[in-house]
Amino acid sequence: MVVASANMLVGDGGERVGGLELPRVDLSGERWAVSEQIVKASQEYGFFKLVKHGVPEDIIATMEEEASAFFAKPVAQKNATAGYGSNTIGLCGDVGRLEYLLLNASPSSSSISQLNPSNFRNSVSEYVGVVRELACEILELMAEGLEVPNTQAFSNFLRHHDSDSLLRLNHYPPLLNNDIINVAFGEHSDPQILSLIRSNDVPGLQISLPNGLWFPVSPDPSAFFVNVGDALQVMTNGRFVSVRHRAMTNSQESRMSMAFFGAPPLNACIAALPEMVTAQRPSLYRPFTWAEYKQAAYSLRLGDHRIHHFRVCTQVDQQ
Ligand SMILES: O=C(O)CCC(=O)C(=O)O
Ligand SMILES: [Fe+2]
Question: Where is the Fe2OG dioxygenase domain (predicted)?
Answer without folding.
Answer: 162-264
